[in-house]
Design goal:
The chain is mainly alpha-helical and 467 residues long. It has three domains: 121 residues, 3-Layer(aba) Sandwich (Rossmann fold); 87 residues, Serine Threonine Protein Phosphatase 5, Tetratricopeptide repeat (Alpha Horseshoe); 160 residues, DNA Cyclobutane Dipyrimidine Photolyase, subunit A, domain 3, CATH 1.10.579. Helices cover 48% and strands 6% of the residues. Helix 5 links the parallel strand 4 and strand 5. The longest helix is centred in the middle third of the chain and has 26 residues. It binds flavin-adenine dinucleotide. Flavin-adenine dinucleotide (FAD) binds next to helix 9, helix 11, helix 14 and helix 16.
């Protein structure tokens, strides 16, 4: 019998370890490890608890059960393996430095007890090291990575294991509450978790919105993206299942434009894999710049500005709408993530690590690969990132991507009754005009033009080009 340790694969189907033929029966287990929980936050834990309940129900209706343990993973898994006479433990490979170090400890502890370990690459279509330059190096430029990723054959999804492969559980274990685990309730409303929700989300998107993805994905008010990110982060859907469904959508596309839109969406799945490869080969990027400058970047220390950014009170409407969407939904639209990240680093001149840490605490879909990739892209410190001199203007970004200001008004009620042209011209109004239009909404906390110049100087000094 083999234990299968679920982690970011909270699903029964399209789960390679559950169907690999090396064991006659499998007993599933999930471990709440305090060392890992130290890096967690309420939105993600709430989503995981919801997803575990759905997964446990799936096992229970098949006369098995999901064992829930609390404690350090190496000790807990070794103890359970011994108590159940399991001769092996399987799991899906982790890609972050933290996850890999933990897995090494588990492997060593199990080896000491004479228990085999069996790992599978399950989280990506193409595992790190499988898409490289002709010299065998990992790609640092996405467009070259994409060309190879796009054309490489992909594995198809696999079915869920039959009930006959699932072992009886020795005892019932309870899923803890957030409070049991020492977390407060999340401030945001968290999307429902679980493998069935993931399936609905995928099918809804691929039946319709995927065909307008090319045109609508940058417009936050249209909500035309898949919203699959929490499911992909926590593995309530398998990536092969997603890709199969996307390919079917491409086959069913009504015209060339729709086919093109599907391909653009596939490109986002490739970005996800690109950033996972970057993290795998550069685990230090979670705290260090990927790209070194000659000198340190002299980020400012400005707690008040940071607080205004976190609260969505910067006086830049699109930035504030995004930051408030994050607090309300534990999610933010991709285009707006790019805008708020640029604003933090290039207008407030604050270290990207401050923003990354806030996102880590607030996002339900946080994973270090994508989150770090996004932050370092915006901060011009990452692989294939935004050049330091290309600085988003938050007002024109708002006007271009939310022209009617519907997204802004949805999340910033102080601007609820204000015309779009007034909102997009907020930085140009006098104090009296602002008071008249929306007395409770703040004036811009910085001048974008001035900060743009300051950002250029900051990066030129880091490059050794200015005093
Ligand atoms: C500063 C910043 C931080 C980010 N943090 C995260 C994060 O913690 N977790 C996360 O999953 N994504 C993150 N992203 C990427 C992206 O914003 C989200 O994946 C996307 O908004 C999720 O919504 P969706 O599922 O509707 O996306 P869709 O547009 O429907 O995309 C489908 C999937 O493709 C992947 N994807 C899409 N865009 C990107 C991208 N730019 N980079 C990598 N993968 C992508 C995601 O898995 C996403 O679920 C971040 C981006 C930025 C700029």
């Amino acid at each position: 019998m083999r234990l299968h340790w679920h982690r970011t694969d909270l699903r029964p189907s399209d789960n390679l370890a559950l169907v690999s033929p090396d064991a006659d029966s499998i007993l599933p287990v999930y471990v709440f490890d305090p060392r890992i929980l130290d890096h967690a936050a309420p939105p993600r834990v709430a989503f995981v608890l919801d997803s575990l309940a759905a997964l446990r129900e799936w096992y229970r209706t098949r006369e098995s059960d999901l064992i829930i343990l609390r404690g350090e993973a190496p000790t807990e898994l070794a103890r359970l393996a011994e108590a159940t006479d399991a001769d092996a433990v399987s799991w899906a490979q982790a890609y972050s430095g933290l996850g890999r170090r933990r897995d090494d400890r588990v492997r060593d502890r199990l080896a000491d007890a004479g228990i085999e370990t069996h790992t599978v690459h399950d989280h990506l279509l193409h595992e790190p090291g499988s898409i490289t330059t002709n010299d065998g190096d990992p790609y640092a430029v996405y467009s070259y990575f994409w060309k190879k990723w796009r054309d490489r054959e992909k594995a198809s999804s696999v079915a869920a294991p039959g009930a006959d492969r699932l072992a009886d559980a020795p005892e019932e274990t309870a899923i803890p509450t957030l409070a049991d685990l020492g977390f407060d309730d999340p401030e945001a409303t968290i999307p429902a978790g679980g493998y069935m929700e993931a399936r609905h989300c995928l099918n809804d998107f691929c039946g319709d919105d995927i065909y307008r993805y090319e045109d609508a994905r940058d417009a936050p008010a249209t909500d035309a993206t898949s919203r699959l990110s929490p499911h992909l982060t926590h593995g309530t859907v398998g990536i092969r299942t997603v890709h199969d469904r996307v390919v079917r959508a491409r086959e069913e596309a009504p015209d060339d434009a729709a086919r093109e839109a599907v391909e653009t969406f596939r490109g986002e799945l490739a970005w996800r894999e690109f950033y996972h490869h970057v993290l795998y080969f550069n685990p230090e990027v979670v705290t260090e710049n990927y790209r070194g400058y000659e000198h340190d970047i002299e980020w400012r220390d400005d707690p008040e500005a940071l607080q205004a950014w976190k609260e969505g009170k910067t006086g830049y409407p699109i930035v504030d709408a995004g930051m408030r969407q994050l607090r309300r939904e534990a999610y933010m639209h991709n285009r707006v993530r790019m805008i708020v990240a640029s604003f933090l680093t290039k207008d407030l001149l604050l270290d990207w690590r401050e923003g990354y840490d806030w996102f880590r605490r607030k996002l339900v879909d946080h994973n270090p690969a994508n989150d770090n990739g996004g932050w370092q892209w915006a901060a011009s410190t990452g692989t294939d990132s935004q050049p330091y001199f290309r600085i988003f203007n938050p007002m024109t970004q708002g006007e271009r991507h939310d022209p009617d200001a519907d997204y802004i008004r949805e999340y910033v009620p102080e601007l609820g009754g204000v015309d779009a042209d007034v909102i997009h011209g907020w930085h140009e109004l006098s104090d009296a005009e602002r008071r008249d239009a929306a007395p409770d909404y703040p004036a811009p906390i910085v001048d974008h033009g001035e900060r743009r110049e300051a950002a250029l100087t900051m990066f030129e000094r880091a490059r050794g080009e200015a005093d």
